[in-house]
Amino acid sequence: MDKKNILILGAGFGGLTVLKYLLRDLKKREDIKITLIDKQNYFLFSPLLHELAVGVLFPENIVVPIRNLYRSNIHQFVQARVEDINLSEGKVKTSAGIFSYDYIVLALGGVTDISGMADNIENGSNVFSLKSAEDAVAVKNHIIKMFEKASAETDPAVVEELLTLAISGAGYTGVQLASSLSDVVYKYLLSSYPDIDPARIKINLIESKDRVISELPEKYSHYVMKHLQKHNINVRLNCRITEIGSHRIRLDTGEAIPSRTVVYVTGVVANPVISSIGAEKDAIGRVIVNDFLELVNCGGAYAVGDCVHYQDSVTGQVARQRAHNAVRQAAVVARNLVADITQKKRTKYRISDSAEVISLGRSNALLRLNGFSLSGILAILVWVISYSLLAIGKKNRVKIAVDWVLARIFGPDTSLIESQDIESRLGKDSDLSAVIDNKGS
Ligand SMILES: Cc1cc2nc3c(=O)[nH]c(=O)nc-3n(C[C@H](O)[C@H](O)[C@H](O)COP(=O)(O)OP(=O)(O)OC[C@H]3O[C@@H](n4cnc5c(N)ncnc54)[C@H](O)[C@@H]3O)c2cc1C
User: Of all atoms in ligand 1, which is nearest to the CA of residue 130?
Assistant: First the structure.
């Protein structure tokens, strides 16, 4: 039997939700084959990455193996890196071979773009992004390392470099990370490092726009700004980082700040695989889609989530790169794929941005709901409940809830466990290391 092939690229919020709804509606169709491809074999719950970066949660809390999520006879998961998408031939090149399709869903998300800084970074080991679980673990390890070194350092100038942390970008992620970091540092870390003078710690949040989280209505931006200032976060507006040296960063104002830590959360652009395909795209490489979330002039090719530029034809609003938007778009795309296959009428997507909750550390959050807002402990409760409910899988919900409570009582994890190179793992002079060296030569 000739089967219709549906290819879903990316198993993040968008791609997995498309799969979930397709399986619900097409599970009994033997003439359908769905292939889900991702370079990782797990789903990452990225809205909680900042909690991983400050040691409150652990990697296994916020990832779920994709193969454990859905079972059916009509779909398969392939762990592979997508390298090229040829829309005119209906073929996708991956590290596991070439896949043909009848319908395709692009859900490869975005990447942090620091390419403009490449020539101005002196020491890459001081610079981090926050897009993957590995990134978050690296941020946590680096900060702990800075505190360990500062605790044993006697030169005040070096201590200043070690204890000055910079976050580039005061959007949602930068604000959430700065708030969690401030909480963890001042409420928990300092008690483990009695030799460190709290006055020496500086958390800088650097933003090129004139307010924090500029997507929010102004009054909420002001609320967030006040919260950050109250929590010892030094917010620098209207400036950007132009140089990252081994011991200091430089701003476009000419000012130099001694620091050995920069977390980059600015400049999310489309995945390079998406920005290089032959379709209409916006200035940051995202594919432009119509009301059905279909690529312009590319029938049978849909896209969802952070790799999409969707402008609501009624309100003119452009969909933001948020997890709930990816999930809502995915539901519409799954419905439209089923409509294509069963030759029914398709559904139009409309932006619905009426509610959101932003965490501001362990003691505050901001909830916005249809023009009404709430902050403080009730908003935190909503944040905790909504995110633990969103986390895929009952096991993860329980793990997250338990670790949140434990971290609140006993403080976050400050152990420094790093991956090692082969020499450190086997011992430089060990027999096994010599055998491996000989094989390689
Ligand atoms: C630190 C952080 C905090 C955030 N906080 C919030 C929040 O509080 N609330 C909110 O609503 N949103 C938040 N977001 C945004 C939210 O995570 C994204 O909007 C959402 O993940 C987009 O879903 P997606 O499916 O488009 O992409 P993703 O969920 O990023 O999924 C993309 C998938 O594609 C895979 N992939 C990428 N390239 C390749 C390739 N070449 N080959 C194969 N597979 C590939 C990736 O492995 C990934 O699984 C946050 C994001 C970050 C990074």
Answer: 1
Cβ atoms of 11 and 44 within 8 Å: the answer is: no
Query: 104, 289 in Cβ contact below 8 A?
Result: no
pLDDT given at position 421:
59
> What atom in ligand 1 is closest to the CA of residue 306?
26
pLDDT, mean of residues 208-219: 92
Question: Which protein residue's CA is at the shortest distance from atom 50 of ligand 1?
Answer: 47
pLDDT one-digit tens code per residue, 62-90: 899 999 899 999 999 999 999 999 999 99
Residue nearest to atom 37 of ligand 1 (CA): 108
Query: Which tokens in the block code for residue 193?
Result: 């490092």
Protein residue whose Cα sits closest to atom 29 of ligand 1:
12
* CB proximity list for 438: less than 8 A, separation 6 or greater: none
Ligand 1 pocket, mutate which of 78, 216, 322 (most atoms under 8 A from CB): 322
Specify whether the backbone of 120 is left (phi greater than 0), alpha (psi in -120 to 50) or beta.
alpha
- Phi first, then psi: what are they for 48, rounded to 5°? -105, 15
Structure pTM?
A: 0.92
pLDDT tens-digit readout, 192-213: 999 999 999 999 999 999 999 9
Q: Which atom of ligand 1 sits closest to the CA of residue 46?
A: 17
**Cβ of residue 94 lying under 6 Å from some atom of ligand 1:** no
**C-alpha closest to that of 326 among 45, 62, 99, 36:** 45
Q: Give the domains, in start order, of the chain with CATH numbers.
A: 4-39+80-110+269-342 (3.50.50.60), 115-266 (3.50.50.100)
Distance separating alpha carbons of residues 319 and 14, to the nearest angstrom: 14
Which H/E stretch holds residue 367? strand 365-369
78 in Cβ contact with 37 (< 8 Å): yes
- Please check whether residue 68 is in contact with residue 108, taking contact to mean a CB–CB distance below 8 angstroms: no
Q: Whose CA is nearest to atom 44 of ligand 1?
A: 38
- Taking the CA of residue 16 as reference, the ligand 1 atom at the shortest distance is 25
Judged on CB neighbours under 10 Å (0-12, 13-18, 19+), 345 is exposed
CA of 330 to the centre of ligand 1 (A): 13
